[in-house]
Amino acid sequence: MALAPRLDLRQSQSLVMTPQLQQAIKLLALSNLEIEAFVAGELEKNPLLESGGADDFAPPADGVDRAAEQHDLRAETGDADQLIGQGLGGADSPLDVDYGAETFIDDGPGDRMATAAIGSGGMDLLSGGSGEAPDFDSFANPEQGLQEHLMDQARSALSGMDLMIAAQLIGQIDEAGYLEANLLETAHGMGVPLFQVEQVLAVIQGFDPTGVGARSLAECLALQAKEVDRYDPCMAKLIANLDLLAKGALPQLRRICGVDEEDMADMIRELRGYDPKPGLRFSTESAAPVTPDLFVRPTREGWAIEVNSATLPRVLINRTYYVELASSPQDKTSKAWLADCLASANWLVKALDQRQKTIIKVASEIVRQQEDFFRKGVEHLKPLTLKAVADAIQMHESTVSRVTSNKYLSCPRGLYELKYFFTSGVSAAGGDGAVSAEAVKSHIKALIAAETADAILSDDTLVDLLRAKGMDIARRTVAKYREAMGIGSSVQRRRQKALRGQAA
Fold it and tell me: Is the pTM of this model over 0.90?
């Protein structure tokens, strides 16, 4: 056979992750607050996009009532491939928001105040147009932080090089009030002798709050004991052996300190009155509350699942602006850019709508399978896997994993991450089904909380009690769950209860 070059035409199929499909997958893993930030960036880049406002019910210029064509927010079928396949369509229906529903949340008081300032004045401005006074606490000056508080004291007590050293040391005090600096390195870095840095540190440790500038917990407690003139040799030995106190080794501590049981109880009671983190009282940082993405509430027909519309961005396509741009004279490059903007805007609206439907669909299946938890409590939480939910709603397991990431569900029993409902199982004692690991932990915690000082439950006793409740569990599993919840062993709990009894 002769060798010669030739051309062949072959047809094949391959799965390609388009940029829009990749972006749609990323949107599933984002929380509502992260989606809000993402949409804000898209609004800056795309002139055809605009955020939905209170006038979204105004009739469109073409006279078509698109509200009748909006989909109800229910768990419907659909995957990412269908989304991308429809992403370049001509429809530009806005996100499904029922402004007449009770669940719709209007703009904040600040927006209503601005509107009231234009339309009226006086009481309308103060009440925000709704009879509700604005939150004046949000306009207050921020509280003084720990470092500013310490620097004010340093300026009145030190000057010159000592003040510079104090500023260097105060800058390395953490929010709890502990010094994280190495004195020798600080002295070398500033070109001053070590004893001068130590003298400045001694001055700082005399500032308010008492115990600030300590380099360890023992030093912090010692500073507070000296402040109230309770730092005698016995107290010094007790503070120097805090590890034994944490273990509850009271007989050994009494021998080290040379005191009897009554004196030891008084010393422990004194230590409990000290602040191990004195700097936190000047902390200006407040923990950001977790914002739920979903609301679950009971109804007569079952469970109602709603997306938190307060944090969900509302995006619309400005059709009037698009028509205005399209009718103006344009070159080839401008037409291509405008077409890309319209396609991107259509895709974003549809992607957000599909994301809502997917989240509702997954959450509905979770609530269906964990209905006993929502009605009776954590003791009735069932073992559940991502694959079980994915098979039930005919989606891929990775899609369910992305949907349940960074999402929180609010129900009458509290606020839970969607991942919380996916737990491993423990075999039931009768061989029928299994019990969730979270339910077992809840039973262990309840049993330990009910024990008395003279009847501490060992791990073997816990195993017997759990098996009596229908949970077939091994002793090592009980120990693992107990340690995961931060609960000590029976010996440690006995010492702690004895310690509390003496301190009381």
Answer: no
pLDDT tens digits along 116-156:
444 444 444 444 444 445 555 544 455 678 889 999 999 99
Give the ranges where 310-432 is alpha helix by DSSP (H): 319-327, 332-369, 371-376, 386-393, 397-403
Tokens in use for 362? 């997954």
- Whether 393 and 365 have beta carbons less than 8 Å apart is answered as yes
Give the three-class secondary structure for 408. Answer: strand
Interstrand relation of 294-298 and 408-411 (parallel, antiparallel or unpaired): parallel
Of 253, 229, 224, nearest to 240 (Cα)?
253
- Over residues 478-491, the pLDDT tens digits come to 888 888 888 888 88
Q: How far is CA 386 from CA 75, 146, 444, in A?
A: 17, 46, 26
Residue in 464, 454, 443 with CA at minimum distance from that of residue 494: 454
- Helix, strand, coil shares of the chain, percent, nearest 5, are 55, 10, 40
Q: What percent of the chain has pLDDT over 70?
A: 78
Note every long-range contact of 495-504, with CB atoms under 8 Å and residues 24 or more positions apart, other chains counting: 495/247, 495/248, 495/249, 495/250, 496/248, 497/453, 497/456, 498/248, 498/250, 498/453, 499/245, 499/248, 499/250, 499/268, 501/453, 502/250, 502/261, 502/264, 502/265, 502/268, 503/265, 503/268, 503/269, 503/272
> Helix crossing, 459-468 with 437-449: angle to 10°?
120
Burial of residue 41 (CB within 10 Å: 0-12, 13-18, 19+) is exposed
Identify the helix (H) or strand (E) that includes residue 500: helix 490-503
Q: In DSSP terms, which residues pair with 471 in a beta bridge?
A: 428
Whether the link from the prior residue into 276 is cis, omega within 30° of 0, is: no
Strand partners, 49: 317
| Exposure b/e, 405-420, CB count within 10 A at least 16 = b | ebbbbbbeeeebbbeb
Helix axes 332-369, 386-393, angle to 10 degrees: 110
- CB 389, CB 365: distance < 8 Å: yes
Q: Which amino acid is at 406?
A: N
Where helices occur in 205-288 by DSSP H, the ranges are 217-227, 233-240, 242-247, 250-257, 261-272
CB atoms within 10 A of CB 178: 21
- What DSSP string runs through 126-191? HHTTTT----GGGGSPPPP-HHHHHHHHHHHH--HHHHHHHHHHHTTB-TTSBB---HHHHHHHHT
By CB atoms closer than 10 A (0-12, 13-18, 19+), residue 288 is: exposed
Give SS3 for 207.
coil
The β-bridge relationship of strands 425-427 and 315-317 is unpaired
